[in-house]
Write a structure and sequence with these properties.
The protein has about 280 residues and is an alpha+beta fold. About 20% of the residues lie in helices and about 30% in strands. It folds into two domains: about 110 residues, Phage tail protein beta-alpha-beta fold (3-Layer(bab) Sandwich), CATH 3.55.50; about 130 residues, no CATH class.
Amino acid sequence: MIRHRLLWASVIAVGLAVAASGQESKPTFEVASVRRATPGETGGRIQFLPGGRFLAQNVAIQFVIEQVYGVRDFQIIAEPKWRAIIADGRENRYYLEGRGPEGATRQQLQDMVKTLLAERFGLKLRVEQRPLPVYALVVAERGVKGAQPRVGNPGGIALIAPGWIEGKRVAPSQIAQVLSRYVDRPVADLTKLDQFLEFTLTFTPPDLAAGGVGPSDPGCPEGFRTMAERLGRKLETLTCPSIFTAVEEQLGLKLQPQAAPLDVLVIDEIHPPTEN
């Protein structure tokens, strides 16, 4: 579940990047360790920490790849023998830890993890474009809402609560990236809008849609009441339809299913790691 975030933060798109062969050196952790997790251990997380630290606890290698390359599971292509190594499973989780320079950025830490995967797991991969199912983000028939001239610096998106997103001076491409988290395929910005948008988007989170929501606020999650009171908003002005309906009614945009070429990671080789 997404934690409440009340501070505005710019959404930075993470592209697929495989280190070029012409680079003089690859970013590497000063100290790193890899070991298998105890079979059947529960929980797991990845952290990019201050002080140049990276920590992966009880996670499958596929999840590590997704986090450092900025992809989702359907963007990883692998033969069954390689898939068996990276996929989640009772005896297929690991602890990875690395320490880089004190002031290392998140991107630098991600690059160091890529090197660690190559050195300790023998990971070899390449980027290709393949046609995959997507949702195209387009302007709805009645027109976009909350559009502003695209001048000055962009703003950001705040994840107020699960199913409650607000944006100030946000480019459509940023909206597409965030919406991808809540639907079953990536969202591609095809709006052709050269404008910023300001909006409040409220919808029933997919994980609650099947099981119903709280009785106090029909259609919206229980937590909306607390957040509305904290932010001084009127709860009765918020509605929580499906995300598809919400995008069209509240943003004046639309999610249309179609196929489009997307970057994918093709795994050519990977092996069980050398541990320490």
